[in-house]
Amino acid sequence: MSQWTGEPRKTKEMINPTWFDIKRLPDKMMPADKQWLPVVLSGKKIIATAKLGPFQKTLLEEVKLQHVDSFPDD
Question: pLDDT per residue over 20-54, tens digit each?
Fold first, then answer.
């Protein structure tokens, strides 16, 4: 999917939704996101596994990325 419809809304988890240019992602992200998000934005399909510590501030293990051709529901 390369298009978006609708407008981002505030939630308990996302207080201030903000758009970012794909080539200029913010430095401040959840630790696992820095590893899997660029792969997904490049168009690849992956299954990612991340084990995070309290409040999702630290990685407890290395992020595991499994590249796939399709998802079970594709």
Answer: 888 898 988 889 999 999 999 999 999 999 999 99
User: Are the beta carbons of 29 and 7 closer than 8 angstroms?
Assistant: no
Q: Which sequence spans correspond to the domains of the chain?
A: 26-68
| The dihedral formed by the CA atoms of 36, 38, 39 and 44, expressed in degrees to the nearest 10 | 130
- The tokens describing 56, both together, are 């999702």
Closest alpha carbon to 55 in 13, 10, 8, 11:
13
From the CB of residue 12, how many other CB atoms can be counted at a distance below 10 Å? 5
CA distance 25 to 40: 13
